[in-house]
């Protein structure tokens, strides 16, 4: 499985961005999708999680502003980010846990930079 993240960029405070994480390869099932972020000088932080059953969880700082979802094929994981704040500035990484020919596989996408200006 390979993941390709996209959608980062520059936004003003209060604006919106949508991140996408597309999976390729031979995939039998989707188990978990996650978005992490890492701001300069900080540790990587788990932002949002979605399970194969559609259960979602969020870090408190983004609740009510961010929404994690998947497409119908469950090969794309989205992170809709609304009402962005300067403190959301970070490199965002997607991570998935999928069932493949070789068993369950955890895969990381490359980071995508989100910059929020005040």
Describe the structure in your own words.
By secondary structure, this protein is mostly beta strands. Helices cover 0% and strands 62% of the residues. It has strands at residues 2-6, 9-12, 17-24, 27-38, 45-51, 56-58, 66-70, 76-81, 90-100, 103-108, 112-117. The strands form two sheets. Strands 2, 4, 5, 6, 9, 10 and 11 form a seven-stranded mixed sheet that branches. Strands 1-3-8-7 form a four-stranded antiparallel sheet, with no helix packed on it. A hairpin with a 6-residue loop joins strand 4 (27-38) and strand 5 (45-51). The model has no long low-confidence stretch (mean pLDDT 96).
Brief overview:
The protein is mainly β. It contains no helices and eleven strands.
- CA-to-CA gap between the ends? 37 Å
β-strand percent reads over 45%
The H-and-E topology, N to C, reads as EEEEEEEEEEE
- Oligomeric state of shown chains: single chain
Task: Give the proportion of residues in helices.
Answer: under 10%
Keywords:
mainly beta; seven-stranded mixed β-sheet; single chain; four-stranded antiparallel β-sheet; 118 residues
Give the helix/strand layout:
Blueprint: E1 2-6, E2 9-12, E3 17-24, E4 27-38, E5 45-51, E6 56-58, E7 66-70, E8 76-81, E9 90-100, E10 103-108, E11 112-117
Parallel strand pairs: 2-11
Antiparallel strand pairs: 1-3, 3-8, 4-5, 4-9, 5-6, 7-8, 9-10, 9-11
